[in-house]
Amino acid sequence: MLDREEFVEQAYFFGVLYERLGQDNTLQELLEQGRFEVLATTKLPMAIEFLSNELKHSGTIAPAMKKISHYFTPFQRYIVEQSETDRGRLDFKTALLILKHEAEYRSRSDNRQGFFLYQFETLCRNRLNYDLGLKAMSEDPLYSPEWKEWILIVRKQLGFVDIADLIYGRSQEFVKYRKRHLGDDAEADYPILFGEREGKIAFANRRKDPLFLFAAMQRHLAYPPVPKREVREDALEMVPQMHRRIERLEQRIKLMEEEQRHGIDITKFYASHRPAPLDEIE
């Protein structure tokens, strides 16, 4: 695990990228600026320089984050990787905000229950791949071996078993239920990862939309709210774009109709741009 000051500087760095990206600054320029703004006594400036070099060569930074996995966690790398894919559902600015909130949370808490719920809710709200996302979560150094084993179990059972049931089954509240019905000797045969509070919340949200579970957990565990992509009304921008596309479609339809009737007269496309005679150039 990194020192607290590393996560404090990471949160600042991701926040700076989020705020300044799109303000006539390229990501390459922002990385160069951020390298000099963050605390020089941390390892982050060297990590940023490595990201900058990778961006120059490949146009992405996720491969560099994977190469320095001792500094950036697999989950951080996965979030950036999903934002850099051509067909990804996660945009880069939302990914930066996710990483900013997570780094802030790491700098002030090591609550594994809160981290699991924040990361899992991130996958859910942003419609990311659960299989790859949970695999990345299981490799996070924050989690103990018992947690990593359970996360991989969730990875296998998700879709067949409700997430609220999976949490409730590993809670102290479930142990109390067993003791009430089976006697005081009825202990769980597996590690208990959640307390009574989390178990009660999970039980109350069984067979419900998982978003209700996440909202209740976030209120009681006080982990950061999960960012999600904001849907903006771009009607004013879309109208001229649609107008240009319709014009291009109309032109293509006219060409197809002419070709079917008597062929296309291509001379009209370059008549107005016909080059000057050689004698005039001389």
Which key features would you list for this structure?
282 residues, mainly alpha, Receptor-associated Protein, 66% helix, 0% strand, globular
Count of the separate structural domains: 3
User: Termini distance?
Assistant: 74 Å
Strand runs, count:
0
The H-and-E topology, N to C, reads as HHHHHHHHHHHHHHHH
User: Tell me, what's the shape?
Assistant: globular
Helix content: 55-70%
Main beta sheet strand tally, sense and closure: none
Total helical elements: 16
Arithmetic mean pLDDT: 88
Rg of Cα set: 27 Å
Provide structural commentary:
The chain has helices at residues 4-20, 27-37, 44-58, 62-67, 74-84, 92-108, 112-125, 130-138, 145-157, 163-168, 172-182, 196-204, 210-221, 235-261, 267-270, 278-281. The protein is mostly helical. The protein has 3 domains: 1-108, Receptor-associated Protein, CATH 1.20.81; 111-231, no CATH class; 235-271. The termini are far apart. The mean pLDDT is 88.
